[in-house]
């Protein structure tokens, strides 16, 4: 369960979800390359992993179970894409919502792919970040520069395609 601070710790790695996620039950999928956060069966965030084999072994001992292949976003049939330029501070704005794309992308043009409850930020055709996105599906077609997205499989960068990760329910 996400604590009131919105700040989780998984085997020593901090994952910021924000106070808006307080009280939600989430699932963590982790390997040595990526950590995925899932809420209600949807991937809402992906961050680089700082976990090593010992951390994963400790998670197994504490009740984590093998998770298989990395989670991919569910197909929704109503994908909307917009393009934005990342600001110097690493943010983009979509429908008055500021989304952190990451400072390494500052000045770059990225595609924001809105699929169900998540926004995938793609740079060079590769998903570099996945975050929860609160704009209702019916309002998305009115976004500046909105276009219909194709149900292309974009997934994560190659390192997270390997199997062998572990999943665990985060506890506060």
What's the gist of this structure?
By secondary structure, the chain is mainly beta. It has one helix at 53-61; strands spanning 7-10, 13-16, 26-30, 34-39, 42-48, 65-68, 80-85, 91-94, 97-100, 109-115, 118-123, 126-132, 147-148, 165-169.
Q: How many β-strand stretches?
A: 14
Query: Largest sheet at a glance?
Result: 5 strands, antiparallel
Order of the strands making up the biggest sheet:
5-4-3-14-6
The backbone outline, from C-alpha atoms, is globular
Helix content: under 10%
Low-confidence stretches: 73-77, 153-166, 168-172
Question: First CA to last CA: what distance?
Answer: 6 Å
Report the mean per-residue pLDDT as an integer: 79
Element order, helices and strands?
A: EEEEEHEEEEEEEEE
Rg of Cα set: 16 Å
- What's the helix count? 1
- Based on helices, strands and strand pairing, what is the structural class? mainly beta
Number of domains: 2
Percent range for β-strand residues: 35-45%
Furnish the topology, listing elements before pairings.
Blueprint: E1 7-10, E2 13-16, E3 26-30, E4 34-39, E5 42-48, H1 53-61, E6 65-68, E7 80-85, E8 91-94, E9 97-100, E10 109-115, E11 118-123, E12 126-132, E13 147-148, E14 165-169
Antiparallel strand pairs: 1-2, 3-4, 3-14, 4-5, 6-14, 7-10, 7-13, 8-9, 10-11, 11-12
């Amino acid at each position: 369960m996400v604590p009131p601070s919105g700040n989780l710790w998984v085997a020593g790695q901090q994952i910021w979800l924000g106070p808006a996620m307080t009280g939600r039950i989430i699932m963590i999928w982790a390997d040595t390359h990526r950590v995925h956060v899932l809420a209600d069966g949807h991937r809402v965030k992906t961050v680089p992993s700082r976990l090593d084999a010992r951390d994963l072994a400790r998670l197994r001992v504490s009740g984590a179970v093998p998770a298989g292949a990395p989670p991919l976003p569910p197909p929704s049939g109503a994908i909307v894409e917009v393009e934005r330029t990342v600001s110097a501070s690493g943010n983009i704005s979509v429908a008055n919502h500021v989304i952190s794309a990451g400072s390494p992308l500052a000045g770059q043009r990225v595609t924001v792919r809105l699929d169900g409850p998540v926004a995938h930020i793609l740079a060079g055709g590769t998903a570099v970040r996945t975050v929860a996105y609160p704009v209702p599906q019916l309002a998305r077609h009115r976004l500046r520069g909105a276009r219909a997205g194709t149900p292309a499989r974009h997934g994560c960068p190659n390192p997270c395609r390997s199997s062998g990760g572990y999943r665990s329910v985060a506890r506060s």
